[in-house]
Amino acid sequence: MKYRQGDVFSIPVADGMPAAGRVVLKMRGGNILVAVYPERSETVDSVDLERLSVSRPVFTVETMDLFIKNGNWPVLGKWAPAVESPIPVYKTQFEPGGPFYEQHIDGTIGGQLTDEEAVHLKRQKSFSPALVEKALRALQGLEPWLPVFDEMRSGEAV
């Protein structure tokens, strides 16, 4: 299955009621940055893209594109009009206990961060598509909430 940046796709949650995701950024190596929305729809065809356009994603995560390519997350089409999403900025260190530096999603390193700036940024991580599905089920109260899901939440770094 081919997909493009800006495409909206369906993520199965439970009982055939999908949630929606959007490809924010295609990255090298098969990873993608996705925005995941908490609303569930009765069917893939009933995902309300207009409503999503004013919604805030609950998760903004880097993941593999495997579930889109194999059809587990079917592409519903292009989101129109195009919606701009901020690209997260992360933090990184070069040595334990050393200062933090800004890290962009493509891996390039920016300037040194103040302690105040660093406390608000996350470290860059990639999460499996299966974990994204599990986080959505937990958000809907269908599974226990795991601490790793907090790292996936959209927030100041988004």
The average pLDDT is 86
Helix content: 10-25%
Overall spatial form: globular
Class from helix and strand fractions? alpha+beta
Q: Characterize the main sheet.
A: 6 strands, mixed
Largest sheet: spatial strand order = 5-1-2-3-4-9
Helices and strands, in N-to-C order?
Answer: EEEHEHEEEEHEHH
> Into which percentage range does the β-strand content fall?
25-35%
Straight-line N-to-C gap: 28 Å
Q: Would you write up a description of this structure?
A:
With 158 residues, this protein is of the alpha+beta class. The chain has two domains: 7-85 and 125-152, no CATH class; 89-123, no CATH class. It has five helices and nine strands; from the N terminus they run βββαβαββββαβαα. It has helices at 49-52, 66-69, 115-119, 129-139, 147-152, and strands at residues 7-14, 17-26, 31-40, 59-64, 75-78, 89-93, 100-104, 109-112, 126-127. The strands form two sheets. It has a six-stranded mixed beta sheet. A three-stranded antiparallel beta sheet has the order 6-7-8, with no helix packed on it. Strand 2 (17-26) and strand 3 form a beta hairpin. It starts with 6 loop residues before the first strand and ends in a 6-residue tail after the last helix. The model has no long low-confidence stretch (mean pLDDT 86).
Which helices and strands, and how do they pair?
Blueprint: E1 7-14, E2 17-26, E3 31-40, H1 49-52, E4 59-64, H2 66-69, E5 75-78, E6 89-93, E7 100-104, E8 109-112, H3 115-119, E9 126-127, H4 129-139, H5 147-152
